[in-house]
Every structure is written in C-alpha cells, then in structure tokens.
Amino acid sequence: AQAEVTENTIWVSSVAAISLTESALGIVRDNSIADAPEVGIQAVGNSSAEITGNTIESAGSIGISLIGNASGTVATNQVSDRRIGVQVGGSAAPDITGNTVVRSVEVGITFADASSGRATENEVSGTGAVGVLVGGTATPDLQQNKLTGNAVGMVFTADARGAASFNTVEFNSVGVQLVGQSAPFVDGNRIADNVDAGVVFAGASSARFERNTVLRNGEVALEVTGTAAPAISGNEIRGAGVYGIIYRDSTAGVLAGNQIVDHVYGVQLQGSAAPDLTDNTLEEILLTSIAYIDSSGGSASGNSCPESLGGGITVSAPADPTLGDNDCRVSSGG
Fold first, then answer.
1. Distance CA 60, CA 80 (A)
2. Using alpha carbons only, what angle is made at residue 164 by residues 163 and 170, rounded to the nearest 5 degrees?
3. How many CB atoms lie within 10 A of CB 99?
4. Can you tell me the distance from the alpha carbon of 316 to that of 294, in angstroms, rounded to the nearest whole number?
5. 3 state SS of 147
6. CA pseudo-torsion sign 176, 108, 183, 273
7. Cβ(49)–Cβ(22) under 8 Å?
8. Are the CB atoms for 25 and 1 separated by under 8 Å?
C-alpha cells in the first residue's frame, strides 16, 4: 500500500514531523512544517518516497533526510533556516530536483556515505558553510544547480567521486573546493564573481576539471595545494585577478589546453610543485605568464604567450623545470 500525506500544517515534533520507514511507499506533498527541532521529513530503510511541494521552515536540524537504501524523488520543496537543508546518506539514491534551499546554517544539500542519485536545477543560497557537499564515497550527479551567496558553493571531499556539470556557482566566498582524495569530473560549469577564489584543489584530490568558464574570482582563479594532482584542461580562465592558476606545496597533475586571460600572473609554481603545462594560451598577463620559483619543476611545452604585457616564462633558481618548445620569451631570475 502507498501512504499519502498531503496538505497538512505541522508544528513541533520530537523526532521527525513526517517519517517513512522500512519498505514504505509514500507521497508527501504540499505540507507546511515549522519548528521541527530534528527532522522535517525523513525516508529511511528501503522506503521509496515522492516528496514534493512541501515547505519546511524555521530553525532545526535537518529539513529533508533520506538514508539507508531510501529512493524516490525530492522536488520543488522550499527549505529554509535548517542546519542542513537536504541530507542524503547510507546507500540512498534519490532524484533531488527543483528545490529551493536557503539560509542553511551548515550545508544546503549533502550526499554522504555511499549515496548516489542526482541533484538537478536546485537553488541553494545563503548557506553558512557549504551549498552542496559531497563526502564519503558518494557518487552523485550534480547538474544545472544554482549556488549563490554561500561561504563555499560546492565541495567534494573524502573519497567522493561523481560529476558536477553545467552548474552556476556565483557570488560565494569560494566557488568550488575539491579536497581530500576526491576525484569527481567537473565539467562545463560557470564559476564566476566569487569573492576570494574560484576553485581550490587541496589534499590529494585528482579531480578532472574540464571545459569550465571561470571569471572574475577574487585574487585567485584556481589554486592547487597539498599533494593534489588534478587534470585541468580546456577551461576558459579570465580575470581580472592576481593569479590565474597557482600551484603550491608538492602538487602535480596536468594543465593542458586552457585559455588564461587578464591576470597579474598567469601561472605561478611554488614549493616543489611539478605539474605538466601543455598547449595553454596566456593573454593579457601583466607581469609573468608562467613563473617558476622555489624548488618547483615539472615541464612546459607548446604554451603560447601572445599579448602579454610582462615576461613570458621566468625560472628563478633553484627551480628546474623541463622547458620544451613554447611561444614565450624565457628568462632567468635570481
């Protein structure tokens, strides 16, 4: 049998205002839930839920939660002022579509544990920490979401995989963080007008970052730190800003076929960073298109530095990169 819970107004509940458990099948639609201190709507076990058109508001722990092996659809709900807006955990695999999640204290939408499923066309804004957080070994597909005005727009951490495609990530403090040992495919997103940085790769992330448009992101468009070794290819990375891409620490990976425009420094390599730079075009760079400092290395070949106002490639001892054929002037620092 399929239960239907529709068009109710629910005030204050001890655990969950509406709960589907075990193997329940249910429709939860057009309810108004306020002042639920723990969970507004939850689906657990092997339950399957259609959770649509509900309003969950006022302070409390979680707006909508799907854990265990729960499945189903979470669509067109309005969730505001919760600690976590929408939580997906365990092995749950829902379709989360067209929801509006605002002013979450910690996280707007999170996929944790071994969860999967999709999040498409959601709007997440005003979150105190992270708009969309993917952790554990989760493998969701995030598409066409709009993440604005959060501390961080999107984070993949731990051993998370999955994909993020055609999302709009704008006006956050930091646009995207790819950290831990995460290895998602991040493709075709617009990452623009974030205050401090566009994208940060950290930890040991080996993310693939391809065909994204990165515009006007604070001081740093892309920052690679720790032992991260991402594959960054085919992106449009435009300022104005100080650094187009900065590699720090013991980072590596590949930077190939990108267009890097209108920064003070195009690519700067610090510490013992040693990525391979291939076939990138660097334009309207004020000081140095590619700068090797400290003990950085790696290789650079097939890169082009037209219309750069400052130097092309600068190598400052003890940096020791392998330089192939580049259409850039090469000079040595002190």
1. 10
2. 165
3. 27
4. 7
5. strand
6. positive
7. no
8. yes
The owner of tokens 């076990």 is 45
Residue 268 binned pLDDT confidence (cut-offs 50, 70, 90): very high
Provide the 10 A C-beta neighbour count for residue 156. 30
221-234 burial: b if 16+ Cβ within 10 Å, else e = bbbbbbbbbbbbbe
The answer to whether 260 and 282 have CB atoms below 8 angstroms apart is yes
Q: What is the mean pLDDT of residues 83-106?
A: 98
Asked if residues 201 and 220 have their Cβ atoms less than 8 Å apart, the reply is no
Strands 185-187 and 84-88: unpaired
- Strands 220-224, 254-256: pairing kind: unpaired
Q: Is 1 exposed, middle or buried (0-12, 13-18, 19+ CB in 10 A)?
A: exposed
300-313 pLDDT, tens digit per residue, is 999 999 866 777 99
Cα distances from 327 to residues 1, 255, 313, in angstroms, run: 70, 16, 10
Pairwise CA distance, residues 257 & 265, whole Å: 17
* Spatial CA neighbour of 315 closest among 333, 295, 297: 333
This model's pTM is above 0.90? yes
DSSP reduced 3-state for 109: strand
Residue linked to tokens 């092309």: 312
pLDDT level of residue 23 (50, 70, 90 thresholds): confident
294 to 205, 220, 310, 315: CA distances (angstroms): 23, 19, 20, 9
**What does 153-215 look like in DSSP terms, one character per residue?**
EEEE-TT---EEES-EEESSSEEEEE-TT---EEES-EEE--SSEEEEE-TT---EEES-EEE
